[in-house]
Amino acid sequence: MAQLSVSLLLLLSSLFIAGTASPNGPPARAFVESQCRATLYPRLCIQYLSINANTSEQSPQQLAQLALMVSLARAQYTRAYVTKVASQLKKMKAKEYQAVKDCLDQINDGVDQLSQSIIELKRIIQDGEGNFMWHMSNVQTWLSTALTDANGCIDGFSGHAMGGKVKATIKARVLNVAQMTSNALALFNRFAARHRARGATTKP
């Protein structure tokens, strides 16, 4: 899984570079904005995806893939921070350690679910119409589970009297992951719906 994460981050980095090498003109941003209207957090969607969308990549599938990769990157970034906090609390034998450890376990699960979703989306592209419904169901299930994990982490802090700044920082970062994952799921559903509609119109 570590090797997988490194390769995904390298691919994500290449998309960041591609986006900065050729500045996004109005067509690219307009496409992102139109797609992001289908999400629950359109401003966040536009903020993260418009700066990374390549002007030559303007399809629902490519945008859904980018959204998944950005969500994974945010989840890994958050995991690194929560891992550091958990390690410090464990050394101090702080009573808040278990709550942070539980959150970290859920973040780890979310990272795995997002990683699997990216792999499955690539399989959809490779297979075309073959096993589309199976692949689609897998991605939707994994993204929904990743979203549940993130929300579970946030809810887990409700009854714990943790230091205000650390607690607020963890919740803010995990909330960002949850919202990005929600947006990624919405964009994937938009791509899947268009893919199914296109397949239905091409059948004899």
TrEMBL record:
- Which stretches make up the Pectinesterase inhibitor domain? 27-187
* Predominant localisation class: secreted
The record's subcellular location field reads:
Secreted, Extracellular space, Apoplast
Entry keywords, A to Z: Apoplast, Disulfide bond, Secreted, Signal
Q: Give GO cellular component annotations, separated by semicolons.
A: apoplast
Signal sequence, start to end:
1-21
GO molecular function list? enzyme inhibitor activity
Tell me which Pfam families the record gives.
PMEI (PF04043)
Show the stretches that span the lipid bilayer. Answer: none
Q: Does the keyword Secreted apply?
A: yes
Q: Which NCBIfam families match?
A: PME_inhib
User: Which family is this sequence assigned to?
Assistant: Belongs to the PMEI family.
Q: What is this protein called?
A: Pectinesterase inhibitor domain-containing protein
Provide the species name.
Camellia sinensis var. sinensis (China tea)
